Amino acid sequence: MPGIGTHFVFATLQKDKAPCFVPFYLGAQGPDPFFFRAFWLNPFISRRFKMAMYGSYLHRIDSTDFFAKMVEFSKGDDELYSFCLGLLSHYCMDRNIHPYVYYRTGFDKEGHLKHGHAFDHLYLEALLDRHMLDEYGIEGYSHDFLKCPSSLLKKISKAYRYADPDNTARNCYLHSVKTYRLANRLLKSKRGIKRKMWKVFGKRSMLFAFSVPPDAKEADAMDVSNLSHHEWKNPDTLETHHESVEELLKIAEVDFDKGIVIFDRLRRGEEGAVEELRVYVGGIEHSGTRIGESKKEFNQF
Questions:
Q1: Would the pTM of this model clear 0.85, i.e. be above it?
Q2: Domain residues of the chain, as ranges?
């Protein structure tokens, strides 16, 4: 993922393209809340459905059929359709910005975030969140970007159950978002004091990596947005790039606009819309990697 703040920035910039903003900015967090499924709330459900792993699963599949089912369930409901558009915005952001993040922070030989790369990945995204929120003048903390009524979360949970009954549970999304919100609230560090405390768990503490700094000093020092247009490569295709994150945001916006046209066709039940969506997705997962291919190269600049 880019982080919660960066996705919220993009949703704010695109808010006029969805009927309802609250479910749209919630959907803009994509499958990420599932990483924070509260295992202790219902141990049976956590063992049976492995909701944290479900977040990874949704990031790595061809999203065509899942998107089609979610849009199908949303017919006649502007809130649910706005949520679906949010999911689309998350996907567009991920597949356009993730290659930059992965190239800059690294991965193991299987392309996964292990052996310290998870820290680098989360740390860069937290700094990027701070940079983007400051750049676009958006105030608030990460948990603020997840505020919504429980009734909406329950309705979205039903949509997930409809789209993927084999891998989801009752109120799965409700519990995931509440835990995600709690985690962000606990990690909030208004003056940076609490953030420094997380280093008690080690210099490369995941709690420290996940905590968004109170100002953009670290982000600016590291040029996390690549305003210097340093060369980077798509880890999958090895295509050379120089874009900044702000420029990638513009590319994601064009991508998003194309996807909205297809989602609208899906919502109307037009013939051939699913296949058009399949071509649009193009077998590219959220990380920007082609399904069946592997990430090949990175450079932690």
A1: yes
A2: 4-281
